[in-house]
Amino acid sequence: MTQLTLALSKGRIFDDTLPLLRAAGIEVLEDPEKTRKLILPTNQPDVRVVLVRASDVPTYVQFGGADVGVAGLDVVLEHELGPYGGGEGGASLLRPIDLGIARCRLSVATRADFDYAAAVRQGARIRVATKYTQLARQHFADKGVHVDLIKLYGSMELAPLTGLADAIVDLVSTGSTLKANHLVEVEDILPVSAHLVVNPGAAKLKRVRLQPLMDAFRRALAAST
Ligand code: ATP
Ligand code: MG
What we know:
Layout: E1 4-8, H1 12-23, E2 39-41, E3 47-51, H2 57-62, E4 68-72, H3 73-81, E5 94-111, H4 116-121, E6 126-130, H5 133-143, E7 147-151, H6 158-162, E8 167-172, H7 176-180, E9 183-198, H8 200-205, H9 207-223
Parallel strand pairs: 1-3, 1-4, 6-7, 6-8
Antiparallel strand pairs: 2-3, 4-9, 5-8, 5-9
The structure holds adenosine-5'-triphosphate and magnesium ion.
The site of adenosine-5'-triphosphate has 17 residues, from helix 1, helix 3, strand 5 and strand 9.
C-alpha cells in the first residue's frame, strides 16, 4: 500500500484544511491542540498527517519528509527564493491548487509619523525588519528602493516602535494588530492564501493515490464558491 504523508502546521492552516480533507473522506483522528504527538493517524490507513512549523512545510515536502503539504503563498515563495529554492531552474515544489484558505496579504507598514512616500521619492535608505527577507529584498529591488533588511522571527510590529527599523514587511489580515500598535499599511506586496504543495517525485510515483485527493479538493472548492 502506498503511504501518503501530509505536512500541516497547527493553527489556522490545520483548522482550515480539515473541511477539505473531510470532503476527500479523510478524518484526522487526533486533535493537535490536545496531543503532543507530531504524527497523527487518519481514518485512512494509508494517510498520515505530520505537524511542522508553517515555514518548514515546503522543506519537508521538497526533501520527501512529506509527499504533500499546505502552506501560505508567503512561505512558499520565500522558500523558492531561499537557499533550497529552485532558483532560475524553476520551482522545487509543485503548487497545483490554490486552496483559498488562510487569506491575508503581505504588506509594508510604518509608524504613522514616518513619511514612506517621501523617503522613497528622496531615494533614502530605509531600514526594514521582516521575517520575509527574500520576498522583501525582491520587492524593494523591483521598486528600486534601497533597503537595509533586518531579519526577525516574530513580533515585527515592535521594530518601528523601538527604532529598530523604519518599516516592516509582514502579513496583514484585518489590520487590527497594526492599528493597536499605531502602525499604518503603506504598500501591498502580495495577496496570500494557502496552497497545496506537492513533492515532484511523489506526484509521479504516488499519482494514483494523489489524484483522487486533489480531485476531491477541487470539487470541494468549486462547491464552496
Ligand atoms: P510559526 O508559528 O512557525 O512562526 P506562523 O506564526 O507564521 O509560523 P501561522 O500564524 O499559523 O504561523 O500562519 C500560517 C500561515 O497562515 C501564514 O504563512 C499565512 O499564509 C497565513 N496567515 C498568517 N497570518 C494570517 C492572518 N492574520 N490571517 C489569515 N492568514 C494568515
Ligand atoms: Mg503565528
